[in-house]
Amino acid sequence: MSSNLKAVIASGDPAGCGPLISLEAIGEFKHKNIEFILIGDRKVFERFAVYRKVKNRINLIDLNTSDIKKIKPGQFSKLSGKASLAYLDAALAIAKENRIKRLVTAPLSKEAVQMVKKNFSGHTEYLQNYFKVPQVEMMMVSKHLKTVLLTRHTVLRKAGFLINAKGVEKTLKLVYAALKEQFKIKKPRIALAAFNPHAGVSTFLEREEKELVAGIRKFKYKVYGPYPADSLFIPEKLKLYDCIISAYHDQGMVAFKLLSMKSGVNLTLGLPIIRTSPAHGPAFDLMRRHKKPFSSSMLAAIKLAIQLNIP
Length: 311
Description:
By secondary structure, this protein is an alpha/beta fold. It contains 14 helices and eleven strands. It has an eleven-stranded mixed beta sheet with strand order 3-2-1-4-11-10-5-6-9-7-8, with helices on both faces. It is globular.
């Protein structure tokens, strides 16, 4: 592993778990030859005892946000939203200026950021706009399962209408390329989950399944399904595939979090850099009650960012 390997970490909402789990994950990371460039506020990090243990391992970019001491743990606000967005913007600027290809983002609050940027819908879409790329996909990664959400943050009654053959083909192309190039899987095996109950391959095919099948036929490599989701997300079946394409958000996320809540990683496909994040939110409830959040998912996000091949 190169001694000049660098990763930029945006520490997320300062009222949430992001600053703490960023510090703890860096402390738990065993390889000493990685330079961590951590973006946030020193005054927030100093609230945690672990900061004193790891401060010599990090290159801290202190944004010294005005009034940051007013931030209360577990209580998001316009100030916390402004700060977390500033951390992300600074991380992107530093990565661009220094040609750093690994970005890890700690959890932020969409609601808090929307207080300062109304159209903010999440990291994934924000990064797509920043890098001006035509397509991004959200791949959830753990040792148990990789799944990509065909439709992301949309209400269920609208999700089915968003499924179309062209979109399915585009998603398959991006996922297949990522599995080959970033994960170094020679012949990726991808399966699709059906949208409707018990639907699959040739049974109970409604409009959504017909679009899935049409998209599969457009794609030049072998793809499996669509299969009924209730029998696809089980360990015996998951061993057969390198990635499952979930038809809608909760179909994939419920299965993923049941299997990988404390070790899951969100990987954004389609960017010119590697971007990962823990597969959970800012845990305001825990921070408000001064309960210790787990940092294992953040550690997994850092490890994956280091391990993956640059797109």
